[in-house]
Specification:
By secondary structure, the protein is α+β, with helices and mostly antiparallel strands. It is built from four helices and ten strands. The radius of gyration is 21 Å and the shape is globular.
Length: 214
């Protein structure tokens, strides 16, 4: 479904040094630009070969927390992170042991990164192609649910029901390069205001900041 939608005088030697320094700065800036563009894949590739569990600390724990959503990305794998991991594993058909290894990273790579969350609902996003994106709703409400994701200038809305305690992907054609997110809303069970939960805890992001869908 398409969105409805955003000086002091210097000696010659000093001048030469300044020119060289400027050239290096440009080169470094270009290199940094490339690094930023590929950071999601680079980080995921690095962490997907590592196992993290209760008591682990570091950048891969932060990556895990950021990808799962609804967690403080403090880099400390505590009981809250373990509980979230166990729920994710159970709802994606994995053994819910709370240990994040190759299989759990693989599932996270499939769905991308959390861009918004409400009680019982996590919305993930990743780049499917140059014009398409995958949004996936992790429905952990215990009931059937539907969702809408509002961004400045439009609304992405999946009107199909998602089964309780599962993650379902939806493909959207979008040529937008950046998303100014406004709200994530989830209807639990029925499409009426009495069963609607919403939050503005959503992430603004550029398409290039998201990893490519696995």
């Amino acid at each position: 479904m398409k969105p409805t939608m955003t000086t002091a005088a210097r000696t010659p030697i000093v001048r030469r040094i300044a020119v060289v320094a400027a050239g290096l700065a440009v080169a470094v800036s270009s290199a940094v630009g490339v690094s930023v563009a590929t950071a999601p894949e680079a980080q995921a590739a690095s962490c997907s070969t590592k196992t993290v569990k209760l008591g682990s600390k570091g950048t891969c724990v932060k990556e895990l927390q950021r990808r799962l959503g609804a967690l403080s990305a403090d880099g400390v794998f505590g009981t809250g992170t373990r509980n979230r991991v166990r729920s994710f594993q159970a709802d994606t058909g994995l053994s819910a042991d709370g240990v994040v290894g190759k299989k759990t990273w693989g599932k996270l790579n499939r769905y991308g990164t959390a861009v918004g969350w409400v009680a019982g609902g996590i919305l993930f996003a990743c780049r499917k192609s140059s014009t398409e994106m995958h949004f996936s709703l992790w429905n952990n409400t215990g009931k059937h649910a539907q969702w809408e994701y509002k961004v400045t200038g439009g609304t992405y809305y999946a009107d199909r029901t998602t089964t309780k305690n599962t993650i379902k992907r939806f493909t959207f054609d979008s040529r937008e390069t950046s998303f100014n997110a406004r709200k994530l809303g989830v209807w639990v069970g029925y499409l009426d205001p009495a069963h609607y939960k919403s939050t503005t805890k959503v992430r603004d992001y550029k398409r290039s900041s998201l990893r490519t869908c696995a």
